[in-house]
């Protein structure tokens, strides 16, 4: 998220200065969700690695720990710091044995009295707590919150500020969905509704108490209708999480809240495997009698709900451990589970430039990723497509079927039936010259008005201006995508979310920032 870099640098600079002051032992930073907290901690580690005896990083779950380790590995820092989860740390003398000189705590949820007591014994240790806006609402331990408030607040940047600056429209949208779900559960009579509860492996969106302990996972979509492949992915992930949940919450009931339409047969199959799905029709049914909730669900969805047919959810059902998996959802094979890792490895291993055909290798990797993400939404995909006059050769041209919010948006508002993909394996940032070359591929009478330029590092400042100029002056939309964007969309699809929603948010950011 390059647009956050200047603020992240400011945070790192302020923390670095505070670390030089002997009297300051406890420091706190508060930032919005998705702001790049991991990058901030990595930058602190990079600056302090040669000055500290032992740096310890505490993470809330094993999943987040693995992700953080990957980030350290990419920055050449893996193995140079000690990493543990709050859960594992509180069950051992990890901190006391490590003689930590600097402890970096990521997030508030997961902190408890025991870990705070262990940290308190390290009187000479400096502590930095990186807190996401709203996290304290997820931790009901008064002693923990009192301890957090005793930290010196070095930097605070709220959701409200980020929205006013035009930074986090997409993150704020998810927060609204989460808040709606919590309000709905309170309305339905659930007790002890808690956000971001976790075991040592998974962090669950919401845990509450009904007749039994109930776990709720939330999936939000921009389109009311999504492909069965995306729906199945979400259910597959829920099945895995449900198995993990049994270790921490024996006898729990598992719910998957999906803000879209889910076919009745799919819901019944999921129900047979112990997962109760609440789709938009069920949610509207549950909101009956509460106009505030009905208005709120109408305001947070990106599609109209006026024609949604209300439907009562299936009743809770417990399933024995040996019950079969969902009949209508294909079992995941090993390759399916590792799409993100597979393509990330290929991108990491692909050198930049043109020597020894690596540009063609990069082109092949990117085209495979595009097919993996969007093949169902294209009626035709042509690689190395050449116009009839042989003036232009495009890396890939795809014919749109539509069916999701993003692709329908391009068809309806940019009068495009075809989109162009260009893959550039450049070592440096893309310059404005390439923008003007790509603009020539776009031609309104041929219904070809949108291009994606995929590169390793993205556009430079002048290229961004050139792309904006093409849009304002000629109505031609040229979209910047980088390796990290492709990987982010792969991860979304692996998690059962619609990857084109990510592109929709990207376009919204561009259009909202356009002036006359």
What can you tell me about this protein's structure?
By secondary structure, this protein is of the alpha/beta class. It is built from 21 helices and 16 strands. The protein has helices spanning 5-19, 37-48, 62-74, 86-90, 94-98, 113-120, 142-149, 159-164, 169-187, 228-248, 264-272, 280-286, 291-300, 334-337, 339-349, 358-374, 405-413, 432-441, 461-474, 483-494, 500-512, and strands spanning 26-31, 55-59, 82-85, 102-106, 126-132, 152-156, 191-198, 203-209, 213-220, 253-259, 275-278, 378-386, 393-400, 418-424, 448-455, 477-482. A six-stranded parallel beta sheet has the order 3-2-4-5-1-6. Strands 7-8-9-10-11 form a five-stranded mixed beta sheet, with helices on both faces. The protein has a five-stranded mixed beta sheet with strand order 12-13-14-15-16, sandwiched between helices. Helix 18 (432-441) links the parallel strand 14 and strand 15. The longest helix is centred in the middle third of the chain and has 21 residues, at 228-248. Mean pLDDT is 81; it is low at 168-172 and 317-337.
Instruction: Give the low-confidence spans.
Output: 168-172, 317-337
Specify the biggest β-sheet.
Answer: 6 strands, parallel
Q: How far is the N terminus from the C terminus?
A: 25 Å
Task: Characterize the quaternary organization of these chains.
Answer: single chain
Average per-residue pLDDT, rounded, comes to 81
Instruction: Trace the largest sheet across and list its strands.
Output: 3-2-4-5-1-6
Quickly give the structural class: alpha/beta
What is the number of helices? 21
Question: Total number of β-strand segments?
Answer: 16
Q: What share of the residues lie within helices?
A: 40-55%
Strand content: 15-25%
Principal-axes shape call: globular
Estimated radius of gyration: 24 Å
